[in-house]
Amino acid sequence: MARQKKLLRDNYHQARWDEAIIFEMSVPGERGVLVPLACQNIIGQVGDGVSAIPANLRRKKAPALPEVNQMRVNRHFYHLSQETLGTDVTLGISEGTCTMKYSPKVQEHMAARHPGIVNVHPLQDPDTMQGILEIYYQVEQFLKEISGMDAFSLQPGGGAHGVYANASMIRAYHRARGDNKRTEIITTMFSHPCDAATPNTAGFKVITLMPDESG
């Protein structure tokens, strides 16, 4: 078991590059792309692109941008991408940012490549959107069966939006019962920041629990 753990630790871990910032990599005169000068006949017709700019708006010197060749730019940003948590580059992902981790991959294979989904307009006639509405309906039925709940809302567009919708429904439920004393939401410092921010926006008093010596 110890050998297996060591194997996993040595071979599967988040990349940690001692990566300099792009400005520290700058080498005077180094270029990624050389933009050719405009042809003289084009300049004769439309100008040189500079003389039309008022003198008081022109730079006195070139901007202090990093000068890095294309290969090193690609390597630099590839290294940065490997230091980012994500399903492509890390095995274990902690809490939070679920929408950013998984939804884009689902959307790429479903929504972004299916003309019947990507071309839908929210204001078009409902009679022309029955396929989309059926997807919504079936997803809700799956969630109801899995959770045992009576209904689901697919309106929230992301994590924090979902937490806000949840807090709003809890508030409406208690108010409908005439219970105006349940005004507090308990969270912990380990929770995602939206777990405290969104109930506060919905009108709750947020109580954040801090860890003790036992965690």
Helix content: 40-55%
Which spans have pLDDT < 50 for at least 5 consecutive residues?
92-96
Instruction: Give, in order, the helices and strands.
Output: HHHHHHHEHE
Strand content: under 5%
Notes on the structure:
The protein has about 220 residues and is mostly helical. It has two domains: about 1-80, no CATH class; about 100-210, Aspartate Aminotransferase, domain 2 (3-Layer(aba) Sandwich), CATH 3.40.640.10. It has eight helices and two strands. The chain has a two-stranded parallel sheet. It is extended.
Task: Kindly summarize this structure in a few lines.
The protein has 2 domains: 81 residues, no CATH class; 112 residues, 3-Layer(aba) Sandwich (Aspartate Aminotransferase, domain 2), CATH 3.40.640.
Question: Top keywords for this entry?
Answer:
single chain; 215 residues; mainly alpha; Aspartate Aminotransferase, domain 2; 2 domains; two-stranded parallel ribbon; extended
Describe how the helices and strands are arranged.
Elements: H1 2-11, H2 40-46, H3 70-82, H4 98-109, H5 115-118, H6 130-147, H7 159-176, E1 184-188, H8 194-201, E2 205-209
Parallel strand pairs: 1-2
